[in-house]
Specification:
- The protein is of the alpha+beta class.
- It has two domains: about 5-150; about 155-320.
- The chain is built from 17 helices and eight strands.
- The protein has helices spanning about 5-25, 40-45, 70-80, 100-110, 125-130, 145-150, 155-175, 175-180, 185-205, 220, 230-240, 245-265, 290-295, 300-310, 315-320, 325, 335-345, and strands at about 30-35, 60-65, 85, 90, 95-100, 135-140, 275, 285.
- The strands form three sheets. A four-stranded mixed sheet has the order 5-2-1-6. A two-stranded antiparallel ribbon has the order 3-4. It has a two-stranded antiparallel ribbon with strand order 7-8.
- Strand 3 (about 85) and strand 4 (about 90) form a beta hairpin.
- Helix 8 runs antiparallel to helix 12 (about 245-265).
- The chain is elongated, with a radius of gyration of 23 Å.
- This is DUF4037 domain-containing protein.
- It comes from Paenibacillus artemisiicola.
- Pfam families: DUF4037.
- InterPro entries: DUF4037.
């Protein structure tokens, strides 16, 4: 049988298995059904290789809190009526998650209650994709659609802070790449170039107002950005160049494209679109920190403004690429709320620790 993408498979599983069970035995119970959460199929990047583990027909089934007492009974009904195989794939009813919208958010983001601007900085972009991508098959009260709309993208003030932080990261290391190269350390220069290429890719996601996925799919998703055709060749050359001069030239060309994108946003006064000398040293940079300061000056939210004045460290994704740290809220020794609060202390302008 030809490979079927996970979204299509799970939609059929909803229509052929889940919906008949709910209609026959729980007709008075409103619910939502969707493919959300972790998994390459949620992002639409799954291939035949994806089906070798944790890839089965499944849905997230959302109930109202008052109806959550039906969860185990519904699961038992699904277990009784679901076939052993569905379109050739094994069925594991345990993979169908029955939850509520608040429980889903608490598990996925470590979040309870109202969301403050600083809270957004504690959410990994991959976790936000797990809410906003995939597909909704049924949504009786519209709560799931409202949730996805709420998290569709960062609020403007948070977005400005993240943009400023991204340019700041580039400004902190763009001069280190040629500096290492000009003293004969081509390996060190290439390592820094790789970091800068990654940072510029993340900046492009921000400028196009798209969440970036975790590393496995970063390049795949980047190809789908509007800017990719123009910037990708420069980034590839910067990544693969054998000499620091070629690396410097290619990265600055990519930065020039990014500067033009920034100017097109119209969020600050126009910035230079070409690299210029780094003091009196024999190499050029884009001076990302200058662009960062211009963006930070446009932040109006008091809490984000205070943070920007003290720390342009960005979101959790910009602080670290450690997978376990990004999943702090899922640690078994931490309840979601306490883990989120612990992480949020990084951003508290009043925190002296």
């Amino acid at each position: 049988m030809a490979f079927m993408k996970g979204i299509a498979l799970c939609r059929r599983f909803h229509l052929d298995v889940v919906e008949p069970v709910m209609k026959d035995a729980y007709a008075g119970v409103p619910y939502s059904s969707a493919l959300l959460g972790p998994g390459s199929e949620v992002l639409g990047y799954d291939t035949e290789m994806s089906a070798d583990h944790d890839w089965v027909p499944r849905v997230y089934l959302f109930l109202d809190q008052g109806d959550f007492g039906h969860a185990e009974s519904i699961r038992a009904s699904l277990r009784e009526r679901a076939p052993e195989r569905f379109y050739g794939y094994p069925v594991d009813v345990r993979k169908t998650v029955i939850t509520t919208v608040p429980r889903f958010i608490e598990h996925g983001l470590g979040m309870k209650g109202d969301i403050e601007p600083l809270d957004w900085l504690t959410f990994p972009s991959q976790a936000l994709l797990e809410i906003t991508r995939g597909d909704v098959f049924r949504d009786d009260h519209g709560r799931l659609s409202a949730l996805r709309k709420q998290f569709a993208y960062y609020p403007r003030e948070v977005w400005l802070y993240l943009l400023a932080s991204a340019w700041q990261r580039i400004g902190q290391e763009e001069h280190l790449m040629p500096r290492a190269g000009c003293i004969g350390d081509e390996l060190g220069s290439a390592i820094i170039a790789s970091r800068l290429v990654r940072d510029l890719i993340h900046l492009c996601f921000l400028m196009e107002r798209q969440y970036a996925p975790y590393p496995k799919w970063l390049g795949t998703a980047f190809k789908r950005l509007k800017c990719a055709d123009r910037i990708s060749p420069c980034l590839w050359t910067a990544q693969t160049a054998a000499t620091w001069r070629a690396r410097e030239q290619a990265f600055n060309q990519a930065c020039a494209h990014a500067a033009r994108m920034h100017n097109a946003l119209g969020i600050t006064e126009t910035v230079p679109e070409e690299a210029s000398p780094f003091y009196d040293r024999p190499f050029n940079v884009m001076h990302g920190e200058r662009i960062a300061s211009l963006i930070a000056a446009r932040i109006a939210d008091p809490a984000i403004q205070r943070l920007a004045a003290r720390r342009l460290i960005g979101s959790i994704d910009q602080i670290t690429d450690n997978t376990d740290f990004r999943k702090l809220h899922t640690w078994p020794e931490c309840e979601g709320e306490s883990a989120r609060v612990t992480l949020k202390k990084l951003y508290d302008p009043g925190n002296k620790d």
